[in-house]
Amino acid sequence: MGMFTVNAFLLLLLAIIAVVALRVHQLFALVMLSGAFSLTAAAQFVVLDAVDVAFTEAAVGAGISTVLALATLSLVPREEKPHAIAPLPAIIAVAAGVLLMVSIGDLPQFGAADAPVHVHVAPDYISGSAEKIGVPNVVTSVLASYRGYDTLGETVVIFTAAIAVLLILAGWTRAPYRRENEDRNSQSTRNIEDKAEDAG
Amino acid sequence: MSEIAAHWNYYLVIILMMLGFYAVIARGNMVKKMVGLNIFQTSVFMLYISVGKINGGTAPILTGDPASVYSNPLPHVLILTAIVVGVATTAVGYALIIRIYESYGTIEDDELAVLIDSDEDACERANTEPA
């Protein structure tokens, strides 16, 4: 019962944060709400016994994502154009939600110990972690040892994303015709460039 | 009613998921879309972690006590990877927003659609006009 209360409270808090985030027009407040959502989600992960996920969500979801969003806000406008509720997307979202809720009834009961997911390979990993790997934290032993190559693949994804961000921001993908238009519009820029060309 | 009591956690998570989904498809501001994506994504993580929970279980860190029940560690591992991949896509998304603002001076997608159309028209005119 205690877990039910805490879990329900946190989920309600998350729902309130999400609704306020939908309604707010100040993007700075929006980003702060996004960080609050991630941090509350981290608290919920602790309640659901996922401590490793919780601290990763708190560090990466609430920390790094918020920093990235704030860095973006320092370069773009901080206010959203006000919008009315869009009917078609609202209908799609509600319909998708209803379909998911109808089909979720086929899942085993929440917290049931005899669900297929708990009786298949999970016990082997838990016993193997102590006997074969020697690491008490099962999540660590699966992540770094059993599925070590997956974690290597994950670092490749991050590396690729870092290269993509650098290439996008360095301007290698700049559309050339747009640049010419801008130059036509501002004669002074053109003069400076001509001078630079002459000097070169 | 017992159906709802057995799956209440999943139902609440689906509501969160759809709030994020709505923000992604309905809102024109790109930063808001990214935050919506973050909410959507975190809710999916919660769904997976809920599946791994066992009533009366504890975090999957071995205590040495043979009687203790551990929640399933495999969804946790999966979601750890997903969180990190998620922040990688978020970083690329924000970088694209910055570039779009640099090129077009707006991050609202309706204004952007108009600007891109007029740009394409201008481009076509430049190509068809005699030099």
Percent in strands of chain A? under 5%
Counting H and I runs of at least 4 residues, what is the number of helices of chain B? Answer: 4
CATH class of chain B: Mainly Alpha
Rounded mean pLDDT score of chain A: 84
Rg of chain B: 23 Å
Question: How are the elements arranged and paired?
Answer:
The complex is a heterodimer of chains A (200) and B (131).
Chain A: H1 2-23, H2 27-47, H3 51-73, H4 87-104, H5 116-119, H6 122-133, H7 138-146, H8 148-170, H9 176-185, H10 187-199
Helix pairs in contact in A: 1-2, 2-3, 6-7, 7-8
Chain B: H1 2-26, H2 30-52, H3 73-104, H4 109-128
Helix pairs in contact in B: 1-2, 2-3
Keywords:
heterodimer; A: 200 residues; mainly alpha; 10 helices; 78% helix; globular; B: 131 residues; Helix Hairpins; 4 helices; 76% helix
Q: Outline of this structure?
A:
With 200 residues, chain A is mostly helical. Chain A has helices at residues 2-23, 27-47, 51-73, 87-104, 116-119, 122-133, 138-146, 148-170, 176-185, 187-199. In chain A, helix 2 (27-47) packs antiparallel against helix 3 and helix 6 packs across helix 7.
Verbal overview:
- The complex is a heterodimer of chains A (200) and B (131).
- By secondary structure, chain A is mainly α.
- Helices cover 78% and strands 0% of the residues of chain A.
- Chain A is built from 10 helices and no strands.
- The longest helix of chain A is centred in the first third of the chain and has 23 residues, at 51-73.
- With 131 residues, chain B is mainly alpha-helical.
- Chain B has a single domain (2-60, 67-128), classed as Helix Hairpins (Orthogonal Bundle).
- In chain B, 76% of the residues lie in helices and 0% in strands.
- Chain B is built from 4 helices and no strands.
- Chain B has helices spanning 2-26, 30-52, 73-104, 109-128.
- The longest helix of chain B has 32 residues, at 73-104.
- Chain B is elongated.
- The model of chain B has no long low-confidence stretch (mean pLDDT 88).
- Classes of the chains: A mainly alpha (200), B mainly alpha (131).
- At the A-B interface, α1, α2, α3, α4 and α6 of A face α1, α2, α3 and α4 of B.
